[in-house]
Design brief:
This protein is an alpha/beta fold. The chain has two domains: 157 residues, Nucleotidyltransferase, domain 5 (2-Layer Sandwich); 117 residues, Trna Endonuclease, Chain: A, domain 1. Helices cover 37% and strands 23% of the residues.
C-alpha cells in the first residue's frame, strides 16, 4: 500500500487546518513476558517517510531502518512503557491505555487530533479517530506501530541477556510452544506476566536460602531495573585477569560507563546490603574496572561506580540504586 492510500485520514485533517496529528499504536499486549509499549508519532506533512506500513508486515531489518527515518523526519515522537508488574496489578487493557497516556503525555508538541489503532482511546482530552486495522490504513499509526515494535523488541533483546534460558531474542515473550515449555522447565522469571493464564500458578524455582542463587537472582533483578532506567547492559559477571576480581554488571547510558556492584540480603543480618561494599571491596572493583577499560576499550567519556542494594522480604523485595556510590 502506498503513501497516498496511507494518508487518507491525515489529508482530510490537514485540509481542515489541523496540523499536529498523532498516530497512536502499541506493541506487546499478547506476550507472556515483558512490557507493553505504546508510541505516539506526529508526522511532518512535508516529509512523510516512504514505505511505512503495519510493523507486522515488515522485516526486522526494514523496521530498524524505518525506525531511524521516522525519528529523524517526524515533527515529534515518544514512547510509553508499562512493565509486567503494573500489568499484573491491573490488567493488560488498562496497562495498554496507561502506556498510551505516557506516550501522548511525553510528546513535546501538543497534538490537535489523535489517530488511534483499533478502538477509541478512553480519555477525551483530545479529538480522536479510532481506525480498525489503522496500522495498515494510516501512515501516522503505521509509524507509531514501527516505533513501538522496535522499541519493545530491543528491550526484549536486552532481557534475553539476563535470562538466556527463555530465548526471548527468538519469540520476544510471545506464547510459542517453545516458550511455554521453557516456563514449565525453568519456572517463570520476574519479567513474566504472572497474571496470564499460561504463567499463573507456576512457582519460581529460585531458592533464596541458597547463597549463590540469592546473589544471582539479585543481580538479574538489578539488571532489569537498570534496563527500566534506560541503561544498556554491556556485561554481567565480568572477571578481570585470572578471575581475581569481578564486576557484577557493566552498563552504559549516554556517554557514561557504569560499574555496578549488587548486594542482596534475605534473612535478618548485620547492616544494610550497601554497607557491605567497604574500602577493600571498592579497591577490588576499581582494579576490575581498570582491567575492563583496557581490555574492552568501551566508548565512554565518563565512568562511575554504583551500588544496588536489594532486601528480599517474604513475598517481595526492596531495591535501592545508589549512583556514584564511591570514588577511587
Amino acid at each position: 500500500m502506498n503513501n497516498i492510500d496511507l494518508l487518507y485520514y491525515e489529508n482530510r485533517l490537514w485540509a481542515s487546518g489541523i496540523k499536529r496529528i498523532a498516530g497512536i499504536d502499541e506493541a506487546g499486549r499478547g506476550p507472556l513476558a515483558g512490557p507493553v509499549v505504546a508510541a505516539a508519532v506526529i508526522l511532518d506533512q512535508q516529509s512523510v517517510p516512504e514505505d511505512v506500513n503495519d510493523s507486522k508486515k515488515l522485516t526486522p531489518a526494514t523496521r530498524d531502518i524505518l525506525f531511524e527515518i521516522i525519528k529523524d523526519k517526524s515533527l515529534d515522537y515518544s514512547v510509553g512503557i508499562v512493565w509486567q508488574e503494573e500489568i499484573d496489578k491491573s490488567d493488560i487493557l488498562r496497562a495498554t491505555h496507561l502506556a498510551m497516556r505516557k506516550a501522548i503525555g511525553s510528546l513535546k508538541q501538543k497534538p490537535e487530533h489523535l489517530l488511534v489503532d483499533g478502538r477509541r482511546f478512553p480519555d477525551n482530552i483530545f479529538e480522536q479517530t479510532a481506525i480498525i486495522s489503522g496500522d495498515s490504513l494510516s501512515a501516522s499509526i503505521a509509524s507509531a506501530s514501527i516505533i513501538a515494535k522496535v522499541t519493545r523488541d530491543r528491550i526484549m533483546l536486552q532481557i534475553s541477556k539476563i535470562y538466556p534460558e527463555y530465548e526471548f531474542e527468538k519469540h520476544k515473550g510471545y506464547g510459542t510452544a517453545a516458550h511455554i515449555g521453557q516456563i514449565k522447565q525453568f519456572g517463570p522469571s520476574p519479567v513474566h506476566r504472572h497474571s496470564f493464564k499460561r504463567v499463573k500458578g507456576i512457582k519460581s524455582k529460585v531458592n533464596l536460602d541458597e547463597p549463590k542463587q540469592l546473589g544471582r537472582h539479585g543481580e538479574k533483578l538489578a539488571c532489569l531495573e537498570l534496563i527500566k532506567e534506560g541503561y544498556e547492559i554491556l556485561e554481567q559477571n565480568y572477571w578481570a585477569g585470572s578471575r581475581e576480581y569481578e564486576l557484577d554488571i557493566v552498563v552504559k547510558k549516554d556517554n557514561t560507563i557504569v560499574f555496578v556492584e549488587v548486594k542482596s540480603k534475605y534473612h535478618q543480618g548485620f547492616g544494610e546490603p550497601e554497607q557491605w561494599v567497604g574500602e577493600k571491596k571498592q579497591s577490588q572493583i576499581s582494579k576490575a574496572a581498570q582491567n575492563y577499560i583496557v581490555e574492552k576499550n568501551p566508548n565512554g567519556e565518563e565512568y562511575r561506580f554504583d551500588v544496588i542494594a536489594i532486601k528480599f522480604l517474604k513475598d517481595n523485595y526492596r531495591m535501592k540504586h545508589i549512583e556514584d556510590a564511591f570514588r577511587i
